[in-house]
Amino acid sequence: MKKKIHQAQTLMDALPYIKYFNKKTIVIKYGGSAQSDPDLKEKFAQDIVLLYLVGIKPVIIHGGGKKINILLDKLEIKSEFIDGLRVTNKEIMEVVEMILGGNINKEITNLLNHHGAKAIGVTGKDASFIEARALDEDKYGLVGEITRIDHKVIEDLMEQNFIPVIAPIASGGTNHPGFNINADLAASKIAVALKAEKIIFLTDTLGILNANNELMSTLNKEEIIDLKEKKVINGGMIPKTNACIEALEGNVGSAHIIDGRVEHSILLEIFTKDGIGTKIKGK
Ligand SMILES: Nc1ncnc2c1ncn2[C@@H]1O[C@H](COP(=O)(O)OP(=O)(O)OP(=O)(O)O)[C@@H](O)[C@H]1O
Ligand SMILES: [Mg+2]
């Protein structure tokens, strides 16, 4: 009996959050680095389906860095990162598109559908809803900077009760191979365009760690700039923190970096008072 009362209490504790986020959009960036364990992938899908069934509108943007590296290695194609961004030539772009637009996008879509949602997987090339230009062609090749998002395409899907699952590839126009967009930066742009209430980045660390490897539960822009200057924030955390700041400056309600290796981390973030991971503070 005690256990049952406890279960009821857990649901009651979630009630204010369920009410608050009802009909609101939450953008979830599902990091490639958090997609390793099959059991965790199932739990991720269950969390998203739960959000969807209680009336929250989840939008998924996914990365896939690890899987892209595995295929590049198999094909013996060398790839390097500058400031956390993958320098992308035409050959690498093909692999990026295969893994992100094909393999991972359909895997996530399939998982969500299997757990009871109606998910549709797209890349920014579908209906050309994400357009981009080269960020700095000499330095990064086909890494793109988003110039336009046709948010109506995504909103239409959501209106029809579909969960959009978005691979961060942008259209570069006719006869163009397309642009590789860092998934964190694509997620923040999409969150702003959809006027999302919250953006959550699922990755493979507790959150943002300081120089002593301790979790920082909150950080503001100035503190992030300082940690970057000291190179405590480096690699893939650079675009992620930039994306958080961009989302908050674009009026997204809150931005969080959380540990995708923890079971049901999304639910812990959304439905508990303290949340988990690092919350980036806006003004
Ligand atoms: N200060 C920091 N705190 C925590 N992680 C950091 C920090 N600085 C750099 N990192 C690195 O950032 C990584 C997360 O970014 P990464 O791009 O590798 O993953 P992701 O964005 O989740 O996956 P993907 O790019 O495939 O979508 C961590 O694994 C860690 O090595
Ligand atoms: Mg990354």
Can you give a write-up of this model?
The chain is globular. The protein is built from ten helices and 14 strands. The chain has one domain (25-281): Carbamate kinase, CATH 3.40.1160. Helix 3 packs across helix 4 and helix 7 (183-193) runs parallel beside helix 9. 46% of the residues are buried. With 283 residues, the protein is an alpha/beta fold. The longest helix is centred in the middle third of the chain and has 25 residues, at 90-114. It has an eight-stranded mixed beta sheet with strand order 5-8-2-1-11-13-14-12, sandwiched between helices. A two-stranded antiparallel sheet has the order 3-4. Helix 2 (38-53) links the parallel strand 1 and strand 2. The model has no long low-confidence stretch (mean pLDDT 96). The structure holds adenosine-5'-triphosphate and magnesium ion.
Structure in a nutshell:
This protein is an alpha/beta fold and 283 residues long. It is 44% helix and 21% strand.
